[in-house]
Amino acid sequence: MKEIYEPKFVENLFDKMSSSYARVNYITSFGFSERWRRQCVEEPKIQEGKYVVDLMTGMGECWKHILKPSDENSILIGLDFSSEMVKRAKKRRHRHKDSKIEVLMENVFDNSFESGVADYVISGFGLKTFNHGQLVKLADEISRILKPCGEFSLIDVSVPQNKVLRTFYMLYLKKIIPILGKLFLGNPETYKMLGIYTEKFGNARNTLQIFDRPDFEVEYVEYFNGCASGIKGRKIK
Ligand SMILES: C[S@@+](CC[C@H](N)C(=O)[O-])C[C@H]1O[C@@H](n2cnc3c(N)ncnc32)[C@H](O)[C@@H]1O
């Protein structure tokens, strides 16, 4: 099962999923994904005219929460390595005509950001496909990209700690979603992976431990009884 964290494996998965990702994301979170995304983006209170990086941007699902309609001076850079997701993200730029948005088709671990460039780093649902070592590298990259005092907020779908909720939610993710995938989206195998990644990810407490280091101030954040969780924080030097 080691290969599920290989970049090529993950990239192919999202290439395949791209045409149905929006619907599946909505279904897998019972329609909560949009609210969680907004809450995650709102954690750092993003100010206008800043440099914002959206890592694992997908099709730019977080952008509408990041960009305020009046804000023509912010620079938003979305990064993703799936060519299909990036293609769709580039199309989405038309919805934000007045904003400066750039999309980079890059691996987050081999990115072209200059050091200390970003005021904020956001990532929606981009953690679970990383193993421990990759999350350590992600912390390094976020620290490198952020300016001193720059802030970040990251979220992903999680395994709730409450036993009843956990049983129900994991049954839903691991058994029902692949059936829905087969019936409506034609690809049960791809959607099975979401349950597998989520189960292995657990919740963002593991990510918190990795980000709890001298260059960061960091906090755990829970969404809807732990069906999603994340971390928010600041680079302190
Ligand atoms: C679950 S989607 C999240 C999309 C979006 N941020 C959202 O809020 O729905 C995860 C995205 O992370 C991207 N991704 C995963 N690993 C990556 C990596 N190492 N470098 C760049 N992008 C990566 C995938 O291609 C996929 O588009």
Please give a handful of descriptors for the protein shown:
9 helices, Rossmann fold, globular, 22% strand
Question: Taking all residues together, what is the mean pLDDT?
Answer: 92
Q: Which superfamily, in CATH terms, is the homologous superfamily? A: Vaccinia Virus protein VP39
Structural domains: how many: 1
Structural class: alpha/beta
Short description:
The protein has helices at residues 7-17, 21-28, 33-42, 63-66, 83-92, 132-145, 163-185, 188-201, 205-211, and strands spanning 51-55, 75-80, 100-105, 118-124, 146-157, 216-223, 228-235.
Question: How are the secondary structure elements laid out?
Answer:
Blueprint: H1 7-17, H2 21-28, H3 33-42, E1 51-55, H4 63-66, E2 75-80, H5 83-92, E3 100-105, E4 118-124, H6 132-145, E5 146-157, H7 163-185, H8 188-201, H9 205-211, E6 216-223, E7 228-235
Parallel strand pairs: 1-2, 1-4, 2-3, 4-5
Antiparallel strand pairs: 5-7, 6-7
What does this structure look like?
It is a single chain. The longest helix is centred in the C-terminal third of the chain and has 23 residues, at 163-185. The protein has nine helices and seven strands; from the N terminus they run αααβαβαββαβαααββ. The chain has helices spanning 7-17, 21-28, 33-42, 63-66, 83-92, 132-145, 163-185, 188-201, 205-211; strands at 51-55, 75-80, 100-105, 118-124, 146-157, 216-223, 228-235. It has a single domain (2-157, 201-235), classed as Rossmann fold (3-Layer(aba) Sandwich). Strands 3-2-1-4-5-7-6 form a seven-stranded mixed β-sheet, with helices on both faces. The protein is of the alpha/beta class. Residues 7, 10, 14, 25, 37, 56-58, 61-62, 79-82, 85, 107-109, 124-126, 129 line the site of S-adenosylmethionine.
